[in-house]
Amino acid sequence: MTRTPDGFATSGPSLPSDIELTTAGLPLAWTVEPNAAERGRILLIACGALAREVLALRAQPSLSHLHLTCLPANLHNHPERIPAAVRTAVEQHRGTYAHIKLLYADCGTGGQLATLCEELGIEMLPGPHCYAFFDGTERFAARAEMTSFYLTDFLVRQFDAFVWRPLGLDRHPELRDAYFGNYRNLVHLAQIDDPDTAQLAKRHAERLGLDFERRVTGYGDLGTAMQGWARSDR
Amino acid sequence: MAENDPEEEIILSELDDTELVEQMFDDLYDGMREEIEEGVRILLDRGWAPYRVLTEALVGGMKIVGEDFRDGILFVPEVLLAANAMKGGMAILKPLLAETGAPTIGKMVIGTVKGDIHDIGKNLVSMMMEGAGFEVVDLGINNAVESYLEAMEREKPDILGMSALLTTTMPYMKVVIDTMVAEGLRDDYIVLVGGAPLNEEFGRAIGADAYCRDAAVAVETAKALIARRHNSLAAG
Ligand code: B12
C-alpha cells in the first residue's frame, strides 16, 4: 500500500504529480486492474484537476469498479479546446466501455460541451464549473458572490501553474490590480480539511491582496453524480 | 516578433516614418508603453495628423496583437500589456483628435453584464472602437438592466454593447434585450454582444444584431451596421 501526497491509500503505482495532471492528464492504465474481468464497463473521463478527488471517492467499495482517465487540467484556460479533446477521448474508448460519463461541468464552453454530450449520448456533470459543483450547484448559485475568487484544493496546489504564471504575474506583478482590483476576497473551497493546503491558500490570498475565507465543501455534487453513475450499470 | 538586441539600442527619432511605424508595432506587441508614447510624439512632431497616428501606428499594431491572441500565440497578459501601451498613446492623441475634428462614426455604450467582473475583452473592444472613430461610453462591470437603460437614455448612443465571460451571466443579455423590446426601445439601437463563451447562434437566439468574435470584428460589424442604418434612414 502506498500513499499519495494527500494521504489517500492506493494500491497501484503512485499517482502522477499535479504538474503531470495539469499538462498531460491521467492515463487510463492507472485505474485498470488487469485481473478484474467483470470490471471495465463504466469509464469516467475527467478534467485532470479532479483526478485526486475522483480517486479518493473511488476508494469507496461501491465506486471502485469505475475506471478513470483524465484530460490535461490546463485546458481550463482554453475552454474552446475542451470539446474537441473530449470527442477524441470518447471515440478512443467507446469500443471498450458500455458507459462513458464526463466529469466536466460547462467550464466556459458556453453550452458546447452539453451539445457534444447530447450528440455522443453521454452524461456530464451539472452546473457551470467545479467551484459550483464542489459547493453544491444550487447553493453556489444562491450565494451570488460577485467579488469572490475561488480556489479548489487542486488550484491551491497548482496556483502558480494556473493563475500566477498564465496571467503573467511572475513577469509583471504590476498587472495584479488590472486582474483582481474588483475582487474582495479569495474563497478556498476545500475538499479535504488539511491545514497545510489552508495555509498555502491563505498565502495566495495575501499575494493577490485579497481577504481570505475558507469553506470545507467535501466533494459536493461530484460524489452524488459518481454514486448515481456507479448504480446505472447495475 | 524578433527580440531587440539590448546591445544595439534603437533610437526611435533616427528611424524614418516607415521604420518607426514598424518599430511601434513591435513595441506595442511587447507592451512597451513609454516607447509607444515617444513614437506617437515623434510622428506628431513630424506633422502626422493625430488621426493618422492613431489608425496607422496604434490600431494597425493592435490588430496584429488581436490576431495572434485569436490564434493562440499570445495569451491574456500580453494582450493586457499591449492594450496598456496603446492606452498611453491614446491619452496623448485624444485631446488632439477632439481639437482637429477627427471624424466620429457613431457612439457606443458598452458594459459587462450583471454578475460578471471580467473586463479585459470589453476594455479592448472599447479601445479599438475609439481607435476606429467611435465615441465610447464604458459602463464598467456588473451592469443590471437599469444601468444599461439609464445610459441609453442619457447618452443616446447608436450602439449598445454587452460583454459576458461566464456561462452563468451570458443569459442576462437576453433579459436586457427583452426589456428593451418591452419598452419599445429595441429598434432604436444596434445591439452587439461578445465574450469567449458566446457564439453566433446565441447572439441570434437572444435577439442581438450581431455577435462579434473579437475587437476587430466588432469594429467592422459596427461600421457596417451603422452604414446600413444610415442608408435605410435615407431611403425611408
Ligand atoms: C482572465 C480571466 C479571469 C481574470 C479576469 C480579470 C478581469 N479583470 O477581467 C480573473 C483571474 C480575475 C478571473 C476570474 C474568474 N473567472 Co475567469 N477567466 C479568465 C480567462 C483566462 C481569460 C478571459 C480574458 O480576459 N480574455 C482576454 C480577452 C481579450 O478576450 P475576451 O474576454 O474573450 O474578449 C474578446 C472577445 O470575446 C470579444 N468581446 C468580449 N466582450 C465583448 C463585448 C462586445 C460588445 C463585443 C462586440 C465583443 C466582445 O472581443 C474581445 C477582444 O478581442 C478565461 C478563459 C478564456 N480563455 O476565455 C477565464 C474564464 C472566463 N473564467 C472563468 C471563471 C469560472 C472565473 C471565476 C468564477 C474563477 C474563480 N476562480 O473564482 C472568476 C469570476 C468571478 C466573476 N464574478 O466574474 C471560466 C468561466 C467558466 C464558465 N462556466 O463560465 C473561464 C472560461 C475559465 C475556465 N475554464 O474555468 N478570470
UniProtKB/TrEMBL annotation, chain A:
The protein's superkingdom reads Bacteria
Q: Where is the DUF1638 domain?
A: 70-223
InterPro entries the UniProt entry points to: DUF1638
- Name of the protein this chain belongs to: DUF1638 domain-containing protein
From TrEMBL, chain B:
Boundaries of each B12-binding domain copy? 105-236
GO CC, any one term: cytosol
- Domain named B12-binding N-terminal: residues: 11-105
Q: Which InterPro entries match?
A: Cbl-bd_cap, Cobalamin-bd, Cobalamin-bd_sf, Met_Synthase/Corrinoid, Meth_synthase_dom
- Pfam families assigned to the protein according to its UniProt record, in alphabetical order: B12-binding, B12-binding_2
Cross-referenced CDD domains: corrinoid_protein_B12-BD
Superkingdom of the source? Bacteria
Q: Does the keyword Zinc apply?
A: no
The Swiss-Prot or TrEMBL record describes its family as follows: Belongs to the methylamine corrinoid protein family.
Q: What is this protein called?
A: 5-methyltetrahydrofolate--homocysteine methyltransferase
